[in-house]
Specification:
This protein is an alpha+beta fold. The protein has 30 helices and 30 strands. The strands form four sheets. It has a nine-stranded mixed sheet, with helices on one face. Strands 23-24-25-26-27-28-30-29 form an eight-stranded mixed sheet. Strands 3, 4, 18, 19, 20, 21 and 22 form a seven-stranded antiparallel sheet that branches. About 5% of the residues have low confidence.
Length: about 900
């Protein structure tokens, strides 16, 4: 295992099973507390770690039979998948045995003496199922049921408002013909509640036939949501499908046992005792019938069921999750995606996926682009289909009527429309979409729909008195001048929720006051009461929060149901004017600061960071309007994959833990909109001794706003020394210098060299000078690939290029070792060649590499370049296998530098 300069792990192994073991081990090292919390939740035992607040969640987990489902799917899985998952569980168990007592959270909570038992092979499946138990349609169906009961059917479409409260994402795919690189681009940012270090763990994997970077779900092997191999990439969003059937069943008690009234079926029942830290115990009942499991109710509802009074009746909610089409393949994608080479391979790998239901986009370096919906849901299957043009998936409702019928609680269309607008504008301006265009879209903080709504709301909200609704809320007694100041400021606001905007703060404060008025002064007030379910459901069924998410729809459709939105808007203006005289507020980022949620509130929290954005912005740092400005959900990661080059991979997560001594926590770079270079990093050799080069180079994302780290091809010139004198000379030979290539200055001479027939293997035959210049501009900006001119007493004699194999396609063809450095050399044609020049230059270069930490030199000339292969053999290189690379079949060759001097 290696770690890049930002602390991201890279696991090398001989096969996929060993890779899963290493992945589990590094997960146990880095996320010990979090994985144990997740495991305890999946077993219905989280309260034992985090206290009585976890009891309701534990009851729900056991009622849904998460552990039993995981065990059944494990039993059904193929031998290879069982081996893969067992190895991952074994790796986590080994790491926990080493790290648990010293884990900071364990020490803070006084749990150092609490033993950790090994994970079962099916535990990762249970962890994943439990983590996604509430990300399907169940919360939305329960919310709609509450609205029907308390307000009536007419309010359901008003308060639905296409507003997902649990999870959502952006995922965009740009085809090669619209990409600046000429190959497909994928960008994604999943929106989630971030607990601890977040649900996603950046990881890199490599075996002799596999090289992958991606975001692993903590507790699950592989990278099933966001990842890329050398030639294929994929990303997901939540598909917003209907994933459960929910019914209310009337029960009647017959001789002390509950039966379904309509069918006479007797409920299955068993009792369990849940335990919480501090010695708290709770007896619970788990009930089910042929229609599904009985959803645990409030203590009062559970008491009625437990009392089981003969001849009594009651009503329960029964939930039936959509069945997995093939339990044997429910988790196969975790392993199979690691070997995907094409977009069609990705489609095949995810075809058996069960939970959660995902909207998947994929592409490959040959230009194929695909989309499918995977997972278990109630509705017609949506098979893979080719994609054309820019594809934006932002949880919006599909245009296809059949697909739309299977969706529930899709997101409002604002994010999707905004993304399409920005990417189309990039094409119009630049002719193609660039990396920086995708990142700028991910960080976009515009909410252009809100200024339009404000103008509608304030059209009749002048300083004159307005009629009050039937239910008075006594708006604050603010002067008309103060109200007009707030109103004018809001009407002047451009819709930007940028972190530095004070107008955004004013808008958010007014919006909270507006929602409060809606909850106090309209029929919506009935939603202020209890939800009718245990506290675990409050985040999904909380009246003010859900009304806040639907406020745009309420403005549009509420008046038809008796809501005076103009009066509420006026009352909110008066309140804000009274509480914030002069509309003076701090910048939005100060009010909207973010820190990851802790699984136990007693744990110390990370320092908050300022963020911009809002629920409906592309930078979906979401609030619950009406409940304050704090971030509820944020982009839990950002990724960008360019299929033109495996090294063109970028990512960041809001992890508050610094996993490298040389960098700050990723959370801070995330909040600034930066990204890190995603490479399967192995400490490489180097050409120069300069600080920041080679082994200590930052993985920051140059060109994408990344943090420190060296850029530029080579830095300063390197004096290699003088060539040895010839046999008839007494004075030293010419002095050899490696001078960094300056693309604009040197393009003409390089173009002349590479255009010679003898340089056909350099791969630039027929190129223009401008094309050559572009390549060397790319190398000049690269932190991992460098180019120099070889100069003899100031005269240019050739090109020397080096690359760090982990950042090059070559690194996917063999097992990269620490200190490896790849090289290419092209000597220019000369009228009079100095005898022994090639060998002498080679020895000077090798000596320089050895001094700078290079342990092994890697070369891969075209297999048909007999002269180059012969020269490598004569120099002492050992030939490896032939390899397929873009544009050629190469002959791998290796020279161990530490033994070179002695052998010569």
């Amino acid at each position: 295992m290696w770690r890049d300069p930002s602390g991201v792990p890279h696991v090398q192994a001989d096969d996929l099973t060993a890779l899963a073991h290493g992945h589990g081990y590094v997960t146990g090292l880095d996320r010990a507390w979090h994985v144990e919390v997740l495991r305890h939740r999946a077993e219905g035992r989280s309260a034992e770690l985090v206290g009585p607040d976890g009891l309701d969640g534990d009851h729900l987990t056991l009622a849904a039979d998460v552990p039993g489902t995981a065990r059944r799917w494990w039993d059904a899985a193929s031998a290879r998948d069982r081996e893969f998952f067992a190895a991952y569980a074994r790796g986590i168990s080994e790491a926990l045995a080493e790290t648990w007592p010293g884990t900071r959270e364990v020490r803070e909570l006084g749990l150092t003496e609490r033993p950790v038992r090994p994970w079962d092979p099916w535990t990762p499946m249970a962890v994943h199922l439990d983590a996604h138990l509430l990300t399907g349609s169940l919360p939305e169906q329960l919310w709609r049921r509450r609205v029907r009961r308390e307000l009536g059917d007419a309010w359901v479409p008003v308060l639905d408002a296409e507003s997902p409260a649990a999870a959502g994402s952006n995922a965009w795919l740009v085809p090669g013909e619209l990409s600046a690189s000429g190959a497909p681009l994928l960008a994604a940012d999943p929106h989630r509640v971030v607990e601890e270090s977040g649900p996603y763990q950046p990881v890199c994997f490599s075996t002799p036939n596999v090289r992958v970077r991606g975001l692993a779900l903590v507790g699950l092997p592989g990278v099933p949501h966001f990842g890329r191999t050398e030639s294929a990439a994929w990303a997901i969003t939540a598909a917003m499908t209907v994933t459960e059937r929910v019914v209310d069943l009337e029960l009647e008690n017959r001789q002390g046992a509950w039966h379904v009234a309509a069918t006479g079926e007797r409920l299955e029942h068993r009792s369990v005792v849940l335990r919480a830290r501090g010695g708290v115990e709770r007896a619970c009942s788990l009930r089910s019938c042929a229609a599904g499991f009985v959803l645990p109710g409030t203590p009062a509802a559970e008491a009625v069921l437990d009392a089981a009074v003969p001849r009594s009746t009651t009503t329960v909610t029964v939930v039936s999750p959509a069945p997995a089409a093939d339990p044997a393949r429910a988790f196969s994608a975790c392993r199979e995606l690691l070997s995907a080479r094409t977009a069609d391979d990705v489609m095949e790998a995810v075809s058996g996926w069960a939970v959660p239901c995902n909207d998947v986009v994929a592409a490959d370096r040959d230009g194929a682009c695909r989309h499918t919906v995977t997972g278990s849901f109630l509705g017609a299957a949506e098979p893979p289909r080719p994609l054309h043009g820019i594809t934006v998936r932002a949880n919006q409702r599909p245009s296809d009527p059949e697909a739309s019928a299977a969706r529930l609680a899709c997101a409002p269309p604002h994010r999707a429309r905004r993304a399409i607008h920005l990417l189309d504008a990039a094409v119009a301006e630049h002719g193609a979409v660039r990396h920086e265009d995708l990142l700028a879209a991910q960080l976009d903080t515009a909410a252009p729909h809100w200024p339009v709504l404000l103008r509608e709301l304030f059209a009749d909200t002048t300083s004159k008195a307005v009629s009050e609704p039937d239910v008075l809320s006594d708006p604050a007694d603010a002067s008309s001048e103060a109200v007009d100041v707030v109103r004018a400021a809001l009407l002047d606001w451009d819709g930007s929720m940028a972190a530095g905007s004070r107008a955004a703060s004013l808008f958010a404060v007014w919006r909270d006051a507006f929602v409060d008025e809606l909850m106090r002064s309209t029929p919506l007030s009935v939603l202020s009461g209890p939800t009718g379910l245990p506290a675990v459901w409050d985040p999904f069924l909380h009246g003010p929060g859900r009304v806040g998410l639907a406020v745009e729809n309420i403005v549009r459709r509420g008046p038809a149901l008796g809501v005076d939105v103009h009066w509420c808007a006026r009352a909110a203006l008066e309140r804000v004017a009274l509480e914030h005289p002069g509309a003076a507020l701090p910048p939005w980022g100060t009010l909207h600061a973010f820190t990851p949620w802790r699984s136990d509130p007693a744990l110390s929290a990370a320092d908050p960071v300022p963020v911009g954005g809002d629920t409906d912005c592309l930078l979906a740092a979401g609030t619950l309007p009406g409940t304050g400005p704090a971030c509820v959900r944020v982009p839990a990661a950002r990724v960008l994959w360019d299929l033109a080059d495996p090294a063109a991979s970028w990512w960041i997560t809001p992890d508050p833990v610094a996993r490298s001594e040389s960098t700050e926590p990723p959370l801070h770079r995330w909040s600034r909109g930066e990204m890190d270079h995603a490479l399967p990093w192995v400490p490489a050799g180097s050409v120069a001794m300069a600080s920041g080069a080679g082994l200590t180079r930052s993985a920051g994302s140059e060109g994408l706003g990344g943090s420190g780290g060296s850029t530029g091809s080579a830095g300063k010139s390197i004096n290699l020394g003088a060539l040895p004198p010839l046999s008839d000379e007494s004075a030293p030979g010419p002095r050899v210098v490696l001078r960094p290539v300056e693309p604009t200055r040197d393009a003409a001479v390089i173009h002349a060299w590479v255009s010679e027939p003898r340089a056909r293997f350099w791969g630039m035959t027929g190129w223009t000078r401008e094309q050559v210049c572009e390549v060397y501009e790319y190398l000049d900006a690269s932190p991992t690939h460098h180019a120099w001119l070889l100069e003899l007493d100031g005269t240019s004699m050739g090109i020397f290029q080096s690359y760090e194999p982990h950042a090059d396609p070559v690194g996917a063809t063999y097992r990269v070792e620490p200190g490896d450095l790849g090289v290419h050399v092209l000597l220019a044609p000369v009228r009079t060649r100095r005898p022994g020049l090639t060998g002498a230059l080679g020895r000077l270069i090798i000596a320089q590499l050895a001094r700078c930490g290079t342990r092994r030199i890697v070369a891969e000339p075209d297999v048909s370049n007999d002269r180059a292969v012969a020269r490598l053999i004569a120099t002492g290189f050992e030939l490896g296998p032939t390899i397929r690379l873009p544009g050629k079949t190469g002959q791998l060759a290796f020279l161990r530098v530490d033994g070179f001097a002695e052998s010569r």
